[in-house]
Design goal:
With about 425 residues, this protein is of the alpha/beta class. The chain has a domain of about 210 residues: 3-Layer(aba) Sandwich (Rossmann fold). Helices cover about 40% and strands about 15% of the residues. It contains 19 helices and 13 strands. The strands form three sheets. It has a six-stranded mixed sheet, sandwiched between helices. The chain has a five-stranded parallel sheet with strand order 8-5-6-7-13, sandwiched between helices. Helix 11 runs parallel beside helix 13 and helix 15 packs across helix 16. It is globular and about 60 Å long. Bound molecules: pyridoxal-5'-phosphate (PLP). One of its GO terms (molecular function) is threonine synthase activity. Pathway: Amino-acid biosynthesis; L-threonine biosynthesis; L-threonine from L-aspartate: step 5/5. It catalyses: O-phospho-L-homoserine + H2O = L-threonine + phosphate. It is an enzyme of class 4 (lyase).
């Protein structure tokens, strides 16, 4: 499988090169040259098959010759070492829980898969690999955890000061070893812009591989398609194709689901549910792509004004807007609506969601108003404990501390404050 740059000015590369580069020299995102199609029988027989086998087959189509079969198998076994349970709330609403991994956010899958790939690639070179990542909350922790002690790889995480939760900050500042955290005065978009600039800086690439672990990286983005496949596996004998409501920030998760749909996966609509950072919902209405400055919300991992992966969704539809609009609905919700949704889920179903999952639930509920016969799945992308203060005060209840979080609370946070690109550059040299 080859990957081309959406900037169209850089040569095609293998999966390995796309992963090592993160972003193409022309600043474009990499995109698979063909979308591999899997026949209806593959999807029909999904229910009875081992998930790891299915995952292996799907990912092999994207990693190609870059990763030999036994290594891919090993990487996926580690990546998929936890459950993705689908829980039915009503005949029309189910929730796919993606938070049972080591950092309790869905990004564990992409981060662990990418760490496995880079670990394998670094065995083949003497050059040090530096992974640079901007986080709006959950990416940093998942990446830190996924890459901890991977030989030959050093990780530098940028996060916006005062805009991530205490637990999120602990997850990315307390591991030490090959993980460094930089606290940036600014927003997530500031962090992302600094990371993008670093990739254009030839000096930083002289003695080291420099790559990104954001969802712009194909190795983080692509394995997310497996969530949707796992959801389908848990719907045996269903004849109605499910609608997926995806709480979206940088739009990587949603884009991976839509990619799976283009590979033949049977499903209905996709719903992009955002918080008040509504660039895409506005675009879907007006055809005018106008990012505004990011607004902090309760679902902070989605506080993204200019979502990197939306361009990939457009490419998937070859820039055919009506076609895209026939498969994608986008809506945004306020913090007040998010809190109401948390309360409703708790009161009606005894279900404790996190603010991101609540936004996904709102997206699905809104869709069901006009499509009452649909059968929907909303993605619950983080464990509520990661947004403990919000959830506990909103529901007037106490959350139990899961084992993954308990150990973090008495560790010391270690980070360096930075505010300019020059400071980042110094930190990387
Ligand atoms: C990152 C994140 C999202 C948004 O996912 P994207 O792929 O960036 O759209 C949603 N919820 C949580 C909890 C996240 O960490």
């Amino acid at each position: 499988m080859k990957y081309y740059s959406l900037g169209k000015q850089s040569p095609e590369v293998s999966f390995k090169e796309a992963t090592l580069r993160g972003i193409a020299p022309d600043r474009g995102l990499y995109f698979p040259k063909q979308i591999p199609e899997f026949p209806p029988v593959f999807w029909k027989n999904l229910g009875g098959r081992d998930f790891n086998e299915v995952a292996n087959e799907l990912m092999q189509a994207f990693t190609g010759a870059s990763i030999p079969a036994p290594q891919l198998r090993q990487i996926l076994a580690k990546t998929l070492s936890f459950e993705f349970p689908l829980r039915q709330l009503t005949a029309h609403i189910s929730v796919l829980e993606l938070f049972h991994g080591p950092t309790m956010a869905f990004k564990d899958v992409g981060a662990t898969f990418m760490a496995g790939c880079l670990g394998y690639f670094s065995e083949q070179t003497d050059r040090k690999t530096v992974v640079l990542v901007a986080t709006s909350g959950d990416t940093g922790g998942a990446v830190a955890r996924g890459f901890l002690n991977v030989p030959g790889v050093e990780v530098v995480i940028l996060y916006p000061k005062d805009k991530v939760s205490d637990i999120q900050e602990r997850q990315l500042t307390t591991l030490g070893a090959n993980i460094r955290a930089l606290r940036v005065s600014g927003t997530f978009d500031t962090c992302q812009a600094m990371v993008k600039q670093a990739f254009q800086d030839p000096v930083l690439r002289e003695n080291q591989e420099l790559t990104s672990a954001n969802s712009i990286n194909v190795a983080r983005w692509l394995p997310q398609m497996l969530y949707y496949v796992r959801a389908l596996q848990q719907l045996p004998g269903e004849t109605t194709e499910p609608v997926f409501s995806v709480p979206s920030g940088n739009f990587g998760n949603l884009c991976a689901g839509m990619l799976a749909s283009h590979m033949g996966m049977p499903c209905g609509q996709f719903i992009a549910a955002t918080n008040t950072n509504d660039t895409v919902p506005r675009f879907m209405k007006t055809l005018d792509y106008q990012p505004k400055p990011a607004i902090p919300t309760l679902s902070n991992a989605m506080d993204v004004a200019d979502p990197s992966n939306f361009i990939r969704i457009q490419e998937l539809f070859q820039q055919d807007f009506p076609n895209m609009a026939s498969e994608l609905t986008a809506t945004s919700f306020t913090d007040a609506q998010t809190l109401e949704a948390l309360q409703e889920l708790f009161a009606d179903f005894g279900y404790i969601a996190d603010p991101h999952g609540a936004v996904g639930y709102l997206g699905l509920k809104q869709y069901l108003k006009t499509h009452p016969e649909a059968r929907g799945i909303f993605l619950e992308t983080a464990h509520p404990i990661k947004f403990r203060e919000t959830v506990e005060s909103c529901l007037e209840t106490r959350l139990e501390l899961p084992e993954q979080i308990r150990g973090l609370l008495d560790r010391e946070k270690v980070f360096t404050d930075i505010s300019t690109y020059e400071e980042l550059r110094d930190a990387l040299r």
